[in-house]
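#struct-pred

JT: dropping the chains for the assembly here, can someone run the whole complex?
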Amino acid sequence: MTVGRVVLGAIFVYAAYTKLRSSYLLFAMAIDAYKVLPEAAAVAVARVLPWLELALGLALIAGVWLRVTTTAATALLAVFFTAMVHAYQPDLKEGQQISCGCFGLGEPISGWTLARDGTLLAVSLALTIGAFWMARRKRKSLISSASAVPAGAPLAEKS
Amino acid sequence: MNPIHRILVGIVTFGLFAGMATSLAFGAGQSAAHTKPAAAAEEGPPEKTLGSRNAPIVMEVFSDYSCPMCKSFYLGAVRRLLESYIPEGKVYLIHRDFPLRGVIGHEHSREAANYANAAACIGKFREVDSALYERQEVWTRDGSVDATVAAVLTPREMKQVRALVASGKMDSYIESDYNLGSSKGVRSTPTIYITAHGKTDVLPGNLSYALLKRYIDEQLQ
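RK: done, full complex below.
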């Protein structure tokens, strides 16, 4: 679980870095190329998304608010993957192949990028399930510990 | 979290930030060494370009004259760049031929590229480039590349172009462009490389001119 979230977090941080090192307008053009958002929305997403990825990545690495961060990561990856599947056109030569945009520009959507992002989505989903399961187990453990001590029972005396 | 996991997290985090810092420092060094106008791309025949070589922004476009999206890019972006940024010496556009092979509807791509290169040799690239895109639907269907080009050139110019095409010399320019594109990973058209401040990025072919304009303005600041 720890290795998975650290690796996923590192990938998110790297993805954010590849976008933040260039003008946000390049990423906006990549988003706009999918033709699923109005141009203004593409610009807004281009400004915000890399910072969100960075925050999610760092939170995953640090292991804080795991249920929230893994859920957010899974939701984000699900949106990316759906958009990529929708835009994927195998063997397209005529007309621009849409850039994945995942780690900067210049990487067209291909079977490889779909497999890669699909794997990340699966890992993120597993981490999300794991985070909720662990939280539930911890809660049960706390309840069990509390019920093992009868109410009003005297504490053990110090010797 | 047990100590081993803490060490693992620490190593990954350190490695990430060290890598990014190194990349940023190296990138900044490269940018600093390239403050003069961008000239990242090699050139084919010298006239197959639009604008001033000293322009701070260079756009290198790998294109197929039969490609509808290349036409959209030309009409939607290049035409508008020709109205302002290119004549003002802010953008330098280099056309590279990348005639797609084995694609239905692109049987006359190479012939069109031949004529465009020949026109470039006599200083008439811009006119022929424009004509080929404007009448794309016609000549891709009936093969009337020669007639399309003849409509925008004088008889004397057309005679020169036909002689150059017949000589077979234009093929070497086209192959040179094609091989350059292949070496860069070009697989579809249009593929657009934009270089500014020593850094090269790839633009999507179906880009919005409004966003391109904003990006160019940002880079020119």
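JT: nice. Strands of chain A lie at 99-101, 104-108. Chain A is about 70% helix and 5% strand.
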